[in-house]
Amino acid sequence: MKTLFSLDNWTMIKKISPDKRMAFATIYVKYPNWKMVAKLDLPDRKKFRDKFLKTNFQKLIDRKYFDTYEVVGTKRRPSGVKAKLTLASILKLTKQSFIENIFIHQLDGAKEKQNKPTYNFFCVKMTVSIQVEGLTKGMQSCEDRYVLVKAQTVESAYNKVKKQEKQYGEPYLNSDARLVRWKIESYDDCFAMNITSIDDFNKPEGVEVFSKLRSRKITSDRAWSGR
User: Fold this and answer.
1) Is residue 198 part of a domain?
2) pLDDT tens, 200-224?
3) How far is residue 102's CA from residue 164's CA, in Å, rounded to a whole number?
4) Which helix (H) or strand (E) covers residue 173, if one does?
5) What domain of life does the UniProt record list for this protein's source (predicted)?
6) Residues contacting 116, CB < 8 A, separation 6+
């Protein structure tokens, strides 16, 4: 699993050896895996977690790769540090089992690359009413419509869909000789998908195209004991 992030975002403009090239980074220590605590009671889980983090935190401090640091998290539950250290030290830390991940924010003798505009897939949810000419009473069919678009931002995703609104709502003649149109009543939500390439759709586990959290009452068949 990748530990060091953002090093690829830097272009080295000065020739400096890793043991002399200084970097400012956030270093996170390993968090306990759920299997480690599954059989423990809640109070014991908290104690185990806090002790686990403190132990890994102390292992990081004991390496003495930096003189001063800022604690990430709390003293009771430290999750890492922000510190200035050499690139060589960072590379050594990536091989340690007590390290979760490292993010470099500044790097001496290097220039941060300009990010190119990226396009992602978004799923736009909208409400559509099916309007039939002359019908003013009774039941009306409507649709929750989901459309995938490739865009840079949520706003641009909405704009792409809205540009097709007139064409989408073009009336047609039904079998009763009445005009019918599918009218977009509202744009309800836009979900940013973790997909950047068409190839992602070929993943054996599939892809998540839309997600929205909601609350409901807990019942016996919906509850989980954790065992």
Assistant:
1) yes
2) 888 898 888 888 888 889 888 888 8
3) 44
4) strand 172-173
5) Bacteria
6) none
